[in-house]
Amino acid sequence: MPDWLTNIVGSDVAAWLDYVTNGRHLQWYASFGYTIGAALLGGAVALVLGLTAAALRRSRFLPVRLASAGYANIVRGVPDVLFFLFFPLAFEQALEWIVATGACSVEERAASSALWPPCRDANIFFSTTQYFLLASVTLGIVYGAFASSVIHGATAAVPRAQLEAARAFGMSERQVLWRVQIRQMWIYALPGLSNVWMLLVKSTSLLSLLQINDIVMWADRLGAPNFQSRAGPIHPDWRWRYYLVLLVFYIALTWLSERFFRWLRRRAGRGMIAAEA
Q: Which residue range forms the structural domain that includes residue 61?
């Protein structure tokens, strides 16, 4: 801290500024980007999967309908933590198995049948960015199942009379679907999708399970009792203070999300009687 700034704010304030702007704290501040990025990317994946699964549930082919319904029902019943651990690990080992078929000899695979991976060349080390993408896709897969149920129910909530009226005016089935049913579906789906988004945002606290230095991991590290061999304890257990910062952050994110979805509902409901009810 420069001497001139210390003279202005005082030594006590300068010491606190030194503490909250050191390298470890700057890394903690940067890790907030992981949380917001994972939520946005995971939300985009969840919306795409939700729309796709909801559309497939209306397919004429029974196996397609069963597969989409199974995705929605099975994934919703699996705990988030379990799926968060299973999917990235399964993806990593499947990739290593594919690499091992070409990189490892038959002798190496036979000699190390009880080990994984069977040879050193097949060992894959993901970077933080790759783990981040895996985490985002995992969030999207989990909450895409919830989104598909919301969208499927919202599509069925569109009044049948409006669909029949559109057909009576000569619209094709494709026009009825896109111009009437999907157009009006959003006003029914957005309240449920906002809840799915809130659940997804809360699940970003699991990023540390994939070796990502997220805000929760940094809060635990920075708030833990800090000791140095020469100076002794730098500070006692301050984790509650760092967790309080995370509490404020998630509340602020929830408030912004609520305002955003309120704006979306007003925009989607323009000219619709259901929006005024």
A: 35-214
Considering only CA atoms, which of 150, 145, 176, 182 is closest in space to residue 163?
176
- Is the distance from CB of 196 to CB of 150 less than 8 angstroms? yes
Answer yes or no: are the C-beta atoms of 135 and 88 closer than 8 Å. yes
**For residue 137, is it within any domain?**
yes
pLDDT at position 275: 41
106: tokens are 């038959």
Q: State pLDDT tens for residues 58-82.
A: 888 888 889 998 998 888 888 888 8
Tell whether 58 is covered by a domain: yes
The CATH number given to whatever domain includes residue 151 is 1.10.3720.10
> Is the residue at 270 inside a domain?
no
Long-range contacts from 24-28, C-beta under 8 angstroms, 24+ separation: 24/218, 24/221, 24/222, 25/222, 27/213, 27/218, 28/215, 28/218, 28/219, 28/222
